[in-house]
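Q: What structure does this chain adopt?
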Amino acid sequence: MMFDNIDGIQLVIAAIGLLALIISFLVYRQTKNQNKRFLSVELTNGFIVYENNSLSDDVYFFITVRNASSKNIVVNSFNLLNIRVRGKKYALIPPQSNIVFPHRLQEGDNCQVWISREDFLRTVERDGFTKSSLKIRAQVMDGTGNRYHSNIFKIRMN
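A:
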């Protein structure tokens, strides 16, 4: 009977130890992820809305870069908009923007650049891409050389 109580006490101590180990692992993981530098890159398309609430004639690609970490990150201008077309090479398209690069993003801040669909298609056709549809994505490089990619976006050339 006395040994049954000792086994029960050992089981409770082991369970508490396991629970403490799980909690310390979760805290460590959360702290480690908070200290990482991470940019979120999103590629979308749409129209520009002007001050008089009119819409642009052309469709634009918008690249939104968001600082998803708790540290300041510098976004470089050289590779800010690097549209990747699956296949042989990269089409480097100069974006339009209302900010100056290199640009420092504080925690939670974002910035956006854009290019008209027409300008993009003209550039990729000039560079020899003649397929009827392309898969593109934006690539952003931070000040330490890390590269971040957006979602893949499929467009038709016609």
